[in-house]
Amino acid sequence: MTGLSTHVLDAVCGVPAVGVGVSLQDAAGGEVASGVTDSDGRIAQVNTDALVPGIYHLVFDTGEWFADNDIRGFYPEVDICFTVDDPDRHYHVPLLLSPYSYSTYRGS
């Protein structure tokens, strides 16, 4: 399996972050793919094609999500920059989100 998936969790409430806009961009800032998190806070396939080795950005529109959920947040967007080194691998990049902090890790 190749491509990229993501999962966003509301770390304050311990629930999926539904409706977060996500954009996958290449190193030059060009959009490769985009989507919106589902009822489980996931995008199972941000893109289905193998990613060419290089640097990518997964940009989450957290400002709109905070506004839609009546939350005063500090981060209008979260930009996770990561490196793809194996085009045959599936990459999973989760985001744990709260109004004044976030964390991420390389998932499986």
UniProtKB/TrEMBL annotation:
One Pfam family, short name: Transthyretin
Keyword field contains Lipoprotein: no
EC number of this enzyme: 3.5.2.17
Signal peptide residue numbers: none
Catalyzed chemical reaction(s): 5-hydroxyisourate + H2O = 5-hydroxy-2-oxo-4-ureido-2,5-dihydro-1H-imidazole-5-carboxylate + H(+)
One GO biological process term: purine nucleobase metabolic process
Residues holding substrate: 7, 42, 105
Transthyretin/hydroxyisourate hydrolase domain location: 1-107
Keywords annotated in UniProt: Hydrolase, Purine metabolism
SUPFAM superfamilies in UniProt: Transthyretin (synonym: prealbumin)
Keyword NAD included in the entry's annotation: no
GO molecular function per UniProt: hydroxyisourate hydrolase activity
InterPro entries per UniProt: Hydroxyisourate_hydrolase, Thyroxine_BS, Transthyretin/HIU_hydrolase, Transthyretin/HIU_hydrolase_d, Transthyretin/HIU_hydrolase_sf, Transthyretin_CS
Subunit comment: Homotetramer.
Record family assignment: Belongs to the transthyretin family. 5-hydroxyisourate hydrolase subfamily.
Job of this protein: Catalyzes the hydrolysis of 5-hydroxyisourate (HIU) to 2-oxo-4-hydroxy-4-carboxy-5-ureidoimidazoline (OHCU).
Protein name: 5-hydroxyisourate hydrolase
Origin species: Gordonia oryzae
Lineage of producing organism: Bacteria, Bacillati, Actinomycetota, Actinomycetes, Mycobacteriales
